[in-house]
Amino acid sequence: MPKAAPRLAGTIVRKEIVANLLSYKFFIVIGLTSLLIFTGLFVMARDYKGRLADYDLIKPKPGDPIAVLAPNPLSVLAKGLDEAMTRSFEVESIGIEVRAGRQSGNAVFAFFPAPDFVYIVKVVLSLVALLFGFDQISREREGGTLKLILSNPVSRAAVLAGKWLGNFLTLAVPFLIVTLLGLAVLALDPGFRLREGDAGRLALLLGICLAYIALFLSLGFLISATTRRSASTLVILLLIWAGMVFVLPNLGTLLARQIVDVPSVRSLHEKRQQIWTREVLLSIADRSTWDARIQSMNEEFDRLTEDYRMKFDRLVRLSKNLNRLSPAASFVYAATEVAGTGIGEEGRLKQEIVRYKNRVLEDNRLGRKDRAAFSYRYRPAGRVLAEGGLFDIAWLVVLNIVLFAAGYAAVVRYDVR
């Protein structure tokens, strides 16, 4: 009898896969999801190529004190802060002037921005996973099949694992096929080329997506095992999904803003203007002190910027910790950091730009003509993981384990009558 248990568990896996493949729900959901993924990749690829064309126009000539970063190819999947990172940072005698990024020619696009791949996974795939898992226990009880299955020599753990694995494979395999097919079509475009190391980042990004999808599937099983009717399960899960995906991330940011006081960018700019005006008026009486006053201004500007950055970093850390109550926030943090468009990469870029500004001003002071061009290398994937990315991935894995274990405990106590 015990030898029959693995066969029955395998039978449950096959049963779930076949049942899903024969249901209209599978084709409708997978069809709509595929359409969204293909459309998102196409639109974001056009956005990337447009920003790349802009970069080719504005990239500095040798010797120009301008820091401009080329768009990140992985921003097609996870745009994150890539648009802010690829703005033009011009070094001037009074500091760094940030030029606005690329603006769309159609103002309507500002109201309806195209969702990137990560957004589609965060919102749509999480909902799809819930739709596949919400009725797996309660519906079987209502139909009487759960009682019939458990009358065989198979444990409830095997039933849960078989049903979970069957539904996960039904979701994961089409998702990977559609995504890889979309990327293969994208690779045929000569205007889109991945950089060295991006293939590994892409594989890691897809793994994070699968962990996120599995988490919501486990959540669906858990709630399904704690309710008696599948209709009630669906209502409860929709409320939880809305809270996790939309409410908690925004609420955490709002709470962080109330706790950490960060001056606005406008006030920082006005303070810099006040310092500039003061130093100009003081230098009128004695023009021989102008170079010294320029250096003094830059030092004071750096102190203002550093103070602002420290406060802003505290706000970001608190906001991220609060937002991590939602797995959707952890997913976005992990995905954008791996893609090189996250908060950590943006902060490191700003630090490198400040260092470049100091080198340029030092060269100007010493009268050097040969000025090195700005260059920036993205952090390798290992460093990204070590500096915070691994925490968010581990948090998603832990939540998966906790939800699955809670679902198992609920199934063990579930009344199949």
| Estimated radius of gyration | 27 Å
Q: Can you summarize the main beta sheet? A: 3 strands, antiparallel
Instruction: Tell me, rounded to a whole number, the average pLDDT.
Output: 86
Number of distinct beta strands? 3
Placed side by side, the strands forming the largest sheet appear as: 1-2-3
Outline the low-pLDDT stretches.
Answer: none
The secondary-structure element order is HHEHEEHHHHHHHHHHHH
How far is the first residue's CA from the last residue's CA? 24 Å
Structural class: mainly alpha
Measured as a percent range, the helix fraction is: over 70%
In total, the number of domains comes to 1
Overall geometry comes to: elongated
Written description of the protein model:
With 417 residues, this protein is an all-alpha fold. The chain has one domain (4-412). The chain is built from 15 helices and 3 strands. A 3-stranded antiparallel beta sheet has the order 1-2-3. The chain is elongated, with a radius of gyration of 27 Å.
Question: In brief, what are we looking at here?
Answer:
The protein has 417 residues and is an all-alpha fold. It has helices spanning 4-21, 24-58, 82-85, 108-111, 117-133, 138-143, 145-150, 156-187, 198-224, 230-259, 265-285, 290-323, 327-339, 343-366, 381-412; strands spanning 66-67, 89-92, 95-98. The chain has one domain (4-412).
Features:
2% strand; 3 strands; 417 residues; three-stranded antiparallel sheet; mainly alpha
SSE layout and pairing:
Layout: H1 4-21, H2 24-58, E1 66-67, H3 82-85, E2 89-92, E3 95-98, H4 108-111, H5 117-133, H6 138-143, H7 145-150, H8 156-187, H9 198-224, H10 230-259, H11 265-285, H12 290-323, H13 327-339, H14 343-366, H15 381-412
Antiparallel strand pairs: 1-2, 2-3
Helix pairs in contact: 1-8, 2-5, 2-8, 5-8, 5-9, 5-10, 5-13, 8-9, 9-10, 9-13, 9-15, 10-12, 11-12, 13-15
